[in-house]
């Protein structure tokens, strides 16, 4: 018989865990419901971000963007299942870092957190760069730095006010993005129905005789970043009212909604423009298509909706990065006095929010290509170790190991490991080099801090609610 907990056992344990964690000194406040978590995840991914990567991936996959999305959805679902397993054992902030630290090894957990931190810390910077690029196209007379500073300032203020207000704001922002996207899809369908650009509805974006597996995997490796929102949600486990129930639900709702949205949008775009080389700017393909299907007026609306995506995405990116630093600081992996404290009134890790804001301001000195090349490396490493953590939990903590437990704690995450390593190996050489340098810096830091691994690592306390699983 499987040793997985019953639904009622999990539900009963939620309140006990929430009460225990919420009353620890300096604990984050539990204010987020399921709807907040879902919208935070969707806002983190920024629904309109699908338009950013369309031209690049269409060129990479030779017109098979929807197929690349299907591949990455399968990959993400395996990892999402592992996240849903781990959050039941560790309903605390930190995500991949916490899971690897607690389930495998404290030193290894630190390195996973270090690599993941690169992604989290740089995403707000990339967001600020994108804001300046898009707004600069509409208002070229305004200096680049003005848009960078304004974007970072707004996101920082929203995070300092409190996570619940930021989450509520994201509901509005995601709604605006979805309206713009729906109008975009409708106009595209109308153009296809009218035979614009010689287009017609076809299954070619999903399957054709000229598909190349290496190209599809390379495209999927890029598109995997579109689904980082469910990972961001897992970092909010200490601020969810019922983390064991709501975070797993939010993870799969986010992937289902986002996956359907991404495939639908890219399908109609790919049908209308099967060859993106016909467009003047592959990187800026989406604004060009917006103008093609709806004229200059709709292009302006499209850019305005995109800025809503920038704002919503920036708020949640900064929120997640600050809470990852908080988890590492609280556990002593980073200086606790600086990183491990929260404001008693708002429950916000203020210092961490400001640190992330300062890093985001480096957008003033870094171009988009340089910043983006550093993101992919850490995501797949983090995903790989989340899957590995489930396997380690099985052998370290579960006492009853029935067929169901073997399937969900070993077989499924093992498939997730293979898929993520495959996608990781599909990354370009620049990403591997820069990511490798960042990892090497983390190893050196850890060696110094632990005096060659001789100093004790942060305590391994094991799952808070392990008794329910024995």
Automatic annotation (TrEMBL):
Record has Transmembrane as a keyword: yes
One GO BP: transmembrane transport
GO CC aspect terms: membrane
InterPro entries, A to Z: AA-permease/SLC12A_dom (IPR004841), APC_superfamily (IPR050367)
Family matches, as Gene3D superfamilies: Amino acid/polyamine transporter I
Domain Amino acid permease/ SLC12A: residue ranges: 36-441
Highest taxon, organism lineage: Bacteria
Membrane-spanning ranges: 37-59, 65-87, 108-138, 144-163, 170-191, 211-230, 251-273, 293-315, 346-365, 377-398, 405-424, 430-448
Alphabetized UniProt keyword annotations: Membrane, Transmembrane, Transmembrane helix
Subcellular localization, as worded in the UniProt entry: Membrane
Matching Pfam families: AA_permease
Bilayer topology term: Multi-pass membrane protein
Predominant place of localization: membrane
Keyword Membrane: yes
Record's protein name: Putrescine importer
């Amino acid at each position: 018989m499987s040793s997985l907990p019953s639904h009622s056992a999990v539900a009963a344990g939620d309140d006990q865990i929430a009460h225990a964690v919420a009353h620890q000194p300096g604990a984050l406040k539990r204010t987020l419901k399921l709807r907040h978590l879902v919208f935070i995840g969707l806002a983190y991914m920024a629904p309109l971000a699908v338009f950013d990567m369309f031209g690049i991936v269409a060129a990479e996959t030779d017109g098979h963007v929807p197929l690349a999305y299907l591949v990455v959805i399968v990959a993400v679902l395996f990892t999402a299942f592992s996240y849903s397993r781990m959050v039941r054992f560790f309903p605390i902030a930190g995500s991949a870092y916490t899971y690897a630290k607690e389930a495998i090894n404290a030193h290894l957990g630190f390195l996973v957190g270090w690599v993941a931190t690169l992604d989290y810390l740089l995403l707000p910077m990339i967001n600020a760069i994108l804001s300046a690029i898009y707004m600069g196209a509409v208002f070229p007379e305004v200096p680049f730095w003005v848009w960078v500073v304004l974007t970072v300032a707004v996101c920082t203020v929203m995070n300092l006010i409190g996570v619940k207000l930021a989450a509520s704001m994201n509901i509005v922002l995601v709604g605006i993005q979805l309206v713009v996207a729906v109008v975009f899809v409708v106009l595209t369908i109308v153009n296809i129905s009218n035979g614009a650009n010689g287009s017609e509805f076809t299954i070619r974006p999903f399957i054709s005789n000229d598909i190349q597996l290496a190209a599809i995997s390379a495209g999927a490796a890029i598109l995997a970043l579109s689904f980082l929102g469910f990972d961001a949600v897992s970092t909010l486990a200490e601020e969810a009212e019922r983390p064991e129930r709501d975070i797993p639900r939010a993870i799969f709702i986010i992937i289902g909604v986002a996956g359907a949205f991404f495939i639908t949008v890219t399908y109609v775009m790919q049908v209308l423009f099967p060859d993106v080389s016909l467009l003047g700017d592959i990187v800026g393909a989406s604004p060009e298509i917006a103008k093609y299907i709806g004229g200059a007026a709709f292009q302006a609306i499209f850019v305005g909706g995109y800025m809503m995506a920038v704002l919503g995405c920036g708020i949640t990116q900064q929120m997640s990065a600050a809470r990852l630093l908080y988890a590492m600081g609280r556990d002593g992996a980073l200086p606790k006095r600086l990183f491990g404290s929260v404001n008693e009134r708002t429950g916000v890790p203020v210092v961490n929010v400001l640190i992330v804001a300062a890093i985001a301001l480096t957008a003033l000195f870094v171009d988009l290509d340089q910043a983006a090349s550093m993101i992919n490396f850490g995501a797949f490493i983090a995903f790989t170790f989340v899957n590995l953590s489930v396997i380690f939990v099985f052998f370290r903590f579960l006492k009853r190991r029935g067929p169901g437990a073997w399937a969900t704690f070993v077989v499924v995450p093992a498939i997730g490991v293979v898929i993520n390593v495959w996608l990781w190996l599909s990354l370009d050489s620049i990403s591997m080099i820069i990511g490798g340098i960042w990892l090497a810096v983390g190893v050196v830091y850890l060696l110094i801090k632990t005096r060659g691994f001789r100093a004790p690592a942060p305590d391994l306390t094991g799952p808070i609610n392990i008794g329910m699983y024995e």
